[in-house]
Hints:
The protein is an alpha+beta fold.
Amino acid sequence: MSEKNLNETSKEEQKVSEQNQRKKKKFKIKYILLSVLLIIILIITWLFFSLFLIKPKNLGISYTYEDYINAIEKTGMQISFDGLTDEDLEEYKKNSSKKNIHDFNWEFSDYKEKSFTLTNEEATALLNNIAPGFWWFENLQVKVDSNGVMQGSSRADISRLKRDLYSDVANDIPIPLPNSVNIYSEGKIEINNNKLTGTPESFYVGAIPLPNNLMTQESISVMEDYFPRIYTIVPGLEINRLSTENGEFVFEGIIPQTITVTPK
Length: 264
């Protein structure tokens, strides 16, 4: 074979080798891109499920109807909704739909000073059952450890919270929010003379933790300005002290003993 033919064969082999290397490189890049895309899809799916489909974090708190009765008796409150009271009202609650607080008249009266403690089960039962048609949180669990750290887990109805409590600032939120989302919080929280104070340790929206740079004193001060609307919506309610002792919630304050709700 002549030298010319050898050179041509060598060039052809080199060309084929380069083509194969380019194909392998393209395949490797394609494989990496597909892998990254798959990871992104899995992360988005995981976040979607944690935000919208998976139930809120289970704190291990289960309660009975007796827990609710014990809690409501400690508060002393008597509630009438559209003429329904006691057992009739409790039966109605089982299948009640969500309602707009602005569609009803609310009358609070007969205020009395109260002091009592609630177990984790009683507190969870009270929050879930006192007014489920108007409450902004579903599948709520609250828990206090022996060291005084409170935990809260629920599915928050963001759309109704914006409508009922935060309509004045809802349009200032810079990003679109889902209609509902799972939330979890942990920390040492107290209410004294209707003022919220505390040291939050963690806050999760779905599976996403709130960044540490947002867990600052400035952020806490903002929370202290807006969170109390959840309880100060009841006129004349005075929470002189809401804290923890020996693994239970401690309440001292003035509560309306008679609550009457009627459609407008």
